[in-house]
Specification:
There is one protein chain. By secondary structure, the chain is α+β, with helices and mostly antiparallel strands. The protein has seven helices and six strands, in the order H-H-E-E-H-E-H-E-E-E-H-H-H. The protein folds into two domains: 121 residues, no CATH class; 99 residues, no CATH class. Helix 2 packs across helix 3 and helix 5 packs antiparallel against helix 7.
Length: 248
């Protein structure tokens, strides 16, 4: 199984900036620019008219943001599903399958819609799906605490096995969330993203394991670490920033 995570996950940017828009922490124009960067363009395809957009057109993200802003007034949840670990995904099947294939999605908590990205060269297309209300995520505090526990357990287990965690992942720039998120959530999100990348890199090799038992045990430890890091990143992004003064 191949895992992948990057600070460039478009769903992280979309979910955090949609949450900032709910609490008027920034303008739609600025949000659109921040979501699209570093890609060339983002478009939204609403083939089933879940947002009331023209179904046969690919709408530039900036023009679709008002419909997204009106669709959800509570919060947008981030999902980073892998087979066997669907996170907040509750269905329906078509949405879950698309999210699993992409490895990411954004879900309106009360809107009944979800968005799944597809990369098309240097651009991203978002397809709008019907989506059930997502399962509740951990709070950022609880997810951070759980991640801390798993990190300590993983370090001890790998030391006992006398195998390496794996290849150090290539350094990337810091994760970028929308304005208004508390500093502790920003720190949790950045740490979780780093650990996701580290777990992905480690799962790509055997770390010097010399037996099937060691390899299986190491893989189990790393998958637990990856799940905890994914939960922490989703929790940090899915709990929106508090109300801000209006920016128009």
């Amino acid at each position: 199984m191949t895992y992948r995570v990057s600070v460039h996950l478009p769903s992280v940017r979309l979910a955090s900036h949609l949450n900032a828009l709910i609490h008027r922490a920034m303008s739609a124009e600025v949000a659109a620019h921040e979501i699209v960067e570093p890609d060339v363009a983002h478009h939204v395809i609403d083939s089933d008219q879940r947002l009331g957009l023209e179904p046969l057109s690919a709408h530039p993200l900036e023009s679709a943001l008002p419909a997204l802003r009106m669709a959800e007034r509570d919060s947008w949840a981030l999902a980073l599903p892998v087979p066997g670990v669907l996170g907040p995904l509750r269905g329906p099947r078509g949405f879950n399958e698309a999210a699993l294939e992409a490895g990411e999605a954004v879900i309106g908590v009360t809107a009944g819609v979800g968005l799944v990205p597809t990369r098309v060269g240097p651009a991203v297309q978002w397809r709008v799906f019907a989506a059930e209300r997502p399962f509740p995520t951990l709070t950022p505090y609880d997810a951070e605490r759980a991640l801390n526990e798993v990190v300590l357990e993983a370090a001890a287990a790998l030391t006992d096995l006398q195998v390496a965690a794996g290849t150090r992942p290539r350094e990337e720039r810091s994760l970028r969330l929308a304005p208004g998120y508390p500093s502790r959530q920003l720190a949790t999100a950045e740490r979780a993203a780093r650990l996701l990348r580290a777990a992905d890199a480690a799962l790509a090799d055997d770390g010097g394991a010399i037996s099937a038992f060691e390899a299986d045990r190491r893989g189990m430890v790393l998958r637990r670490l990856r799940t905890a890091a994914s939960d922490a990143l989703c929790a940090a992004v899915s709990f929106p920033p508090g109300p801000q003064s209006s920016v128009g």
